[in-house]
């Protein structure tokens, strides 16, 4: 089975977010699928131009989010089309992953298998949580059984712990470290640490605590910027979305100058 460091060989890799525009059937869809695909490919090409180490494709604009049990087939079908198109412009050895909101973990695995993607980002892997779309139950057991069923063992599963945009009151007596231990016991391929919401930095002391707690790869999933990146390079990978957008706002266009400055700082300071 493929392992994290076979995909990401640097000591701290940079993964760029491709926030796909709203998909068909969602409130903000602009009735132009081809334009949506063109934009996603353009963002991918920009990330490749600045030698990012990986790409993560996500349907971030599908607000308001619904749980996967309410998805129509158009969500999985469209994400498959987008990922297929993106795969035509990237080298096979560039790690590429997918997340389907909200908690479309099985759907993401299916797309990853069909499109030869390398990883998925999974929500609610261990311990349920309450998000703005309602309660989501833990799903590690079902997800990994499905991965086995479709022979997708080479698709890695990186799981959020104490996920952003969520209440964890029910599991308040379970620490972040214990959550990571549970995710490791349930065979995740890496854990993702975030702040409380999109663009909010993760707590550095939590990253330090996880480093002492788990041998799993640790990814930072929100809030890394050119000004604070030095605080997070002890992680194995940094997922960058909002900071690469104009004015640091996730819903804006990718800002090439922001990408350029960030990657120059990474290289200049040997953070790799």
Low-confidence stretches: none
The CATH architecture assignment turns out to be Alpha-Beta Barrel
| Rounded radius of gyration (Å) | 17 Å
State mean pLDDT (0 to 100 scale). 93
Name of the CATH superfamily:
Aldolase class I
Helix content: 25-40%
Secondary structure category: alpha/beta
Order of helix and strand elements from N to C terminus: HEHEHEHEEEHEEHEHEEH
Instruction: List how many beta strands DSSP finds.
Output: 11
CATH class equals Alpha Beta
| Shape label | globular
**Count of discrete structural domains:** 1
Number of helices: 8
Widest β-sheet, arrangement of strands: 1-2-3-4-7-9-10-11
Counting copies of identical and different chains, the oligomeric state is: single chain
- Please report the distance between the alpha carbons of the first and last residues: 25 Å
For the largest beta-sheet, the strand count, sense and barrel status come to: 8 strands, parallel, barrel
CATH topology: TIM Barrel
Beta content? 15-25%
Short key terms for the protein model shown above:
globular, 3-stranded antiparallel β-sheet, 11 strands, alpha/beta, 272 residues, TIM Barrel, 8-stranded parallel beta barrel, 8 helices
């Amino acid at each position: 089975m493929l392992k994290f460091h076979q995909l990401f060989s640097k000591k701290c890799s940079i993964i760029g977010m491709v926030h796909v525009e709203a998909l068909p059937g969602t409130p903000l869809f602009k009735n132009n699928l081809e334009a949506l695909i063109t934009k996603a490919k353009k963002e991918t090409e920009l990330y490749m131009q600045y030698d990012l180490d990986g790409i993560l494709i996500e349907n971030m604009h599908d607000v308001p989010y619904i749980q996967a049990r309410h998805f129509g087939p158009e969500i999985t079908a469209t994400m498959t089309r987008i990922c297929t198109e993106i795969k035509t412009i990237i080298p096979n050895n560039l790690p590429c992953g997918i997340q389907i909101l909200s908690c479309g973990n099985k759907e993401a695995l299916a797309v990853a298998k069909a499109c030869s993607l390398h990883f998925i980002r999974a929500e609610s892997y261990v311990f349920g949580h309450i998000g703005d779309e309602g309660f989501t139950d833990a799903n590690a057991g079902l997800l990994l059984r499905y991965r086995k069923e479709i022979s997708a063992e080479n698709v890695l599963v990186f799981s959020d712990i104490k996920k952003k945009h969520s209440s964890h009151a029910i599991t308040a007596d379970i620490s972040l470290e214990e959550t990571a231990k549970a995710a490791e016991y349930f065979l995740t391929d890496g854990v993702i640490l975030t702040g409380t919401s999109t663009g909010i930095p993760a707590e550095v002391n939590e990253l330090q605590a996880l480093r002492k707690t788990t041998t799993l790869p640790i990814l930072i999933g929100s809030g890394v910027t050119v000004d604070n990146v030095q605080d997070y390079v002890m992680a194995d990978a940094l997922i960058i979305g909002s900071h690469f957008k104009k004015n640091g706002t996730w819903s804006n266009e990718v800002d090439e100058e922001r990408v350029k400055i960030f990657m120059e700082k990474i290289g200049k300071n040997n953070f790799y």
